């Protein structure tokens, strides 16, 4: 994800170029400033917030100096220069940005408020503003809906992303959930292994927390209060900003630990695929080998994930983790992907071992899920 694809990628300091070096692929929004953007007076909230995000995307690694201006707003979001200038003037009026000493009318330069060192900012990818390859940017798509609160929801979701192996929104905040009629079901036990059936197909979505309550309608009945919220979630899915990745968790609780991702496509065909597909196929093969002459038992679980775990473990869970399609390439993201890759390798090796042991009639060797030191 390279956010440097812009004709305005010019020098933002003595030796720094937008999109190059540290901070080139992401920028940060101070949460206090983000909240204040939604409180100050403005003639057009959507334009105000959009312009602020564009100016921030034009900063370097200090997240302060930007030469992106009304021209960048027009190029990346479709906001005409006259409207963009009004929005930027409002940002200046409210103290969000200020002209630098080097700023001129022809070549404006802005200084944004510094982010406190002890704060927990929201990290956004520059590609959210500039777009990827020939696609319209996600920021442009959101602005085209005309819904300022859709932009609020999008950035709030980025602010919720947690630095674990899922690198997604916590399942307690937003996730796909299994059908109520199909909780985790133990299919059979053999040796030290238990095989569980988990189904995500036909489920729904759940959400809660302050971020979700913000979007509840204040004027509707109790039954209809969440309609605006779910309509915005659906819109983010339609424009491709949010997607869901199936994960196996160590329980069905909201604070469950993520174990590994699975690919539903592996249920329907065999073939080549990425590491998640291959892990899923190996997991299903392990369950099939353990079933032996009871293989007909598995036929009734054709759309279920068959997960083998040690018998001492509690019932696992499956959730669709809400993920952002364009991710901020921060050091935290890279750490999360290292954790993800490590867990996939551990479970791939574990299920390969179980499948081979089952062919030899060996059912007493537990899967080693300890992270290598």
Give a structural overview.
This protein has 373 residues and is of the alpha+beta class. The chain has two domains: 26-159, Arc Repressor Mutant, subunit A (Orthogonal Bundle), CATH 1.10.10.10; 174-360, no CATH class. The protein is 34% helix and 17% strand. It is built from eleven helices and 13 strands. The protein has helices at 31-37, 45-57, 70-77, 81-93, 127-130, 138-145, 148-160, 210-213, 227-238, 275-291, 331-359; strands at residues 26-29, 65-66, 97-99, 110-112, 122-125, 174-177, 185-190, 193-198, 204-207, 242-249, 258-261, 305-310, 317-324. The strands form four sheets. Strands 9-6-13-10-11 form a five-stranded antiparallel sheet. Strands 2-4-3 form a three-stranded antiparallel sheet. Strand 10 (242-249) and strand 11 (258-261) form a beta hairpin. The longest helix is centred in the C-terminal third of the chain and has 29 residues, at 331-359. The relative contact order is 0.12. Mean pLDDT is 89; it is low at 1-23.
């Amino acid at each position: 994800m390279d956010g440097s694809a812009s004709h305005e990628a010019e020098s933002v300091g003595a030796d720094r170029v937008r999109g190059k070096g540290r901070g080139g692929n992401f920028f940060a929004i101070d949460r206090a400033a983000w909240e204040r953007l939604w409180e100050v007076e403005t003639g057009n909230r959507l334009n105000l917030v959009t312009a602020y995000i564009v100016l921030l995307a034009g900063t370097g690694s200090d997240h302060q100096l930007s030469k992106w201006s009304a021209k960048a707003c027009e190029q990346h979001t479709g906001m005409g220069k006259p409207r963009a200038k009004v929005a930027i003037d409002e940002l200046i009026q409210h103290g969000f940005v200020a002209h630098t000493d080097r700023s001129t009318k022809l070549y404006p330069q802005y200084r944004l408020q510094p982010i406190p060192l002890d704060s927990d900012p929201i990290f956004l990818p520059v590609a959210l503003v500039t777009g990827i390859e020939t696609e319209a940017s996600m920021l442009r798509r959101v602005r085209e809906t005309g819904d300022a609160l859709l932009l609020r929801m999008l950035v709030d979701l980025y602010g919720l992303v947690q630095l674990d192996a899922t690198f997604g929104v916590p399942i307690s905040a937003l996730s796909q959930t299994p059908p109520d009629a199909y909780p985790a079901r133990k299919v059979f036990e053999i040796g030290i292994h238990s095989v569980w059936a988990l189904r995500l197909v036909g489920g729904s979505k759940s959400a809660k927390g302050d971020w979700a309550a913000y979007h509840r309608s204040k004027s509707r009945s109790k039954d209809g209060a969440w309609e605006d919220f779910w309509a915005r979630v659906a819109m983010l899915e339609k424009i491709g900003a949010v997607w869901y990745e199936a994960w196996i968790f160590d329980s069905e609780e909201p604070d469950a630990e993520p174990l590994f991702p699975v690919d539903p496509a592996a249920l329907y065909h065999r073939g080549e695929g990425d590491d998640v597909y291959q892990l899923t196929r190996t997991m299903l093969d392990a369950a099939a080998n353990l079933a032996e002459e009871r293989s007909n038992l598995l036929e009734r679980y054709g759309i279920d994930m068959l997960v083998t775990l040690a018998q001492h473990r509690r019932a696992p869970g499956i959730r669709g983790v809400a993920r952002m399609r364009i991710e901020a390439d921060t050091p935290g993201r890279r750490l999360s992907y290292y954790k993800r890759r490590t867990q996939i390798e551990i479970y791939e090796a574990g299920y390969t071992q179980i499948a081979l042991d089952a062919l030899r009639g060996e059912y007493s060797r537990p899967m080693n899920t300890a992270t290598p030191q």
